[in-house]
Amino acid sequence: MSSNASPHRKGLGDAEHLKALGYEDSFHRSMSLWGNFALGFTYLSPLVGVYSLFALALSTGGPPSIFWLVIVGTGQLLVALVFGEVVSQYPIAGGIYPWTRRLWGKRYAWLAAWVYVWAMLVTITAVAEFGSGFLGSLINAPVTKEVTLGLSALFLVVAFAFNFSGTKMLARVARIGLAAELVGVIGLGLYLLVFQRKQEFGIFFDTMGVEGDAGYATAFLGAALAGLFLFYGFEACGDVAEEVPNPATGVPRAMILTILVGGVSALFSFGGYVLAAPDLQAVVDGNDVDPIPAILDATLGTVGANLFLVVAITAFLSCVLSLQAAASRLLFSFARDGMIPGHAWLGRVSPRTAVPVNALIVASTIPLLLCLLIYGGGSTILTQITAFAVLGIYVAFQAVVLAALRQRIKGWRPAGPFSLGALGFVVNVIALAYGIFAMVLLARPGTTGVFLDDWIVLIGLGVVMGSGLLYLFIAQPHSASHQPEGDAIAVAAMLRAHPHNAERTDVRPTSASD
User: Fold this and answer.
1) What is the mean pLDDT of the segment spanning 260-264?
2) Separation CA 392–CA 458 (nearest Å)
3) Distance of CA 48 to CAs 54, 135, 139, 444, Å?
4) Is residue 357 exposed (0-12), middle (13-18) or buried (19+ Cβ within 10 Å)?
5) C-alpha closest to that of 50 among 178, 177, 174, 185
6) Which residue intervals of 277-356 are DSSP H helices?
7) What is the largest CA-CA distance in the chain?
8) DSSP 8-state secondary structure symbol assigned to residue 485
9) pLDDT tens profile 275-306
10) Secondary structure of 32-100 in the HEC alphabet?
């Protein structure tokens, strides 16, 4: 397929659209819509999310905590719709950074990207660490700090090798990971629901005593993490926009598909584990802190449980792969505009594989160093350094949503082929309200009485944002960057006035607001 145009549209081609935004094609557009969706889905990874949060959600909010998957999934779908309009006008590699730059300004974008890239690097580390447990169980390795470090490093190195091979290999492994995820969440979830159900469906309306004296509303809010930790990753589809044919149309579709399929998958998986749990009360009471292996052994047997481990390991590897790819594209986009030290080195793209190799090295090396930090400090360090990651990601997301709303108030009408028309403003407002609600839930201090444990989320975010602001004002990395900023209205007008767009029928649907 040509890098300049898609057979499904006429007029402004991909390279021409990119050139109009101030950039030249540097990548191979070899990632299909299916591959782009697979990348976002394996980053979102419902298998990883459900496995990691199942026991916590049930012990905090009981079986009704499953409804957080619906609440958060709906809220994040609204965010994805806003992102879709932005990436449709700005199909540029790097996602959060170029979007916030073109919607607001380079200093605003610098801070949003700084928070986001550290949140992603920490998430890569956490996924590799959690995945090492599955791999260790499969090979019957002892659970030691040395084994955990070695297996975590193995995940990072293997994922790097696949990413290093090029976009086609990235898309191929992401599709394999997608298949593993679908088998591991939908396939297994359906099997548990149909053949291994030990609870009635009414159990999802039974609090099973988690409310205590404080009332169930408090317990339910405390279980919000069941959804909030799961529904991100769809933005990775936009991180590789310059590697996708017709990204202005395809990337928004891939992001929305990621949310919808990921949400259904998570519901099947979470619900299946609840209904198949042989001793659900023990899980709700907090006496069984890792219930899924017991559920798998009881329902699948030893052989079936080992097969599931293989599926899970594939999903974890694919998740690390997708995270590395997204982080490297963000670093590349940051460097291409001269916004970080070593930008000439980080902004280099391999002429052979068309991959930002040096940015990929950084996206793989820093998580490895964080693994060494965890090895030296123990598992509590992992909890502490990852505590701010999800809040950091939500902050970065809402930086885009807020910037988009600001431009709409100033008169911006998105000019990409994906557009919500007159509904865009309403969706943007509700997405921002949802994001503020989610961030408040994530930032709430704990109630253990231990200062560091209770405030670690805000402390972590404060350290990252504080160091970013300090560097921004002292070193002024944005001062040498001369790419456009805050030009959403002007670019929309330029795209509509482009002579090739006279032939296009899919630039945007007409609406009353036009």
Assistant:
1) 92
2) 10
3) 10, 14, 19, 24
4) middle
5) 185
6) 280-284, 291-336, 343-346
7) 67
8) -
9) 999 899 999 998 887 888 888 888 888 888 88
10) CHHHHHHHHHHHHCHHHHHHHHHHHHHHHHCHHHHHHHHHHHHHHHHHHHHHHHHHHHCCCCCCHHHHH
Q: How many other C-beta atoms are found inside a 10 Å radius of the C-beta of residue 351? A: 7
H helices present in 139-246, as ranges = 145-164, 167-182, 188-195, 216-222, 225-228, 236-239
Tell me which residue of 232, 314, 263 sits closest to 44, measured CA to CA: 232
> What tokens does 442 get?
């994530």
pTM of the entire structure? 0.87
| Length of the chain, in residues | 514
Q: What is the spatial distance between Cα 252 and Cα 37, in angstroms, rounded to a whole number?
A: 10
What pLDDT, in 10s, does the model give residues 434-480? 999 999 998 888 777 778 778 888 888 998 899 999 989 998 888 87
Read off the amino acid at residue 200: E
Please report, for residues 44, 133, 191, 293, the alpha-carbon distance to residue 277 in angstroms, rounded to integers and kept in the order given.
25, 21, 13, 10
With CA atoms as reference, report the closest residue to 408 among 435, 436, 433, 427.
Answer: 427
Residues 269 and 50: beta-carbon distance below 8 Å? yes
Q: How far apart are CA 18 and CA 48, in angstroms?
A: 35
| Separation between Cα atoms, residue 355 and residue 139, nearest integer Å | 33
Q: What type of residue is 143?
A: V
What backbone torsions phi and psi does residue 240 show, to the nearest 5 degrees? -110, 30
Within 8 A by CB and 6+ apart from 74, the residues are none
CA gap 216, 281 in Å, rounded:
17
Q: How far apart are CA 310 and CA 321, in angstroms?
A: 16
Alpha-carbon Rg for the chain, nearest whole angstrom, is 22
DSSP 107-118: HHHHHHHHHHHH
Residues 355/167, Cβ–Cβ less than 8 Å: yes
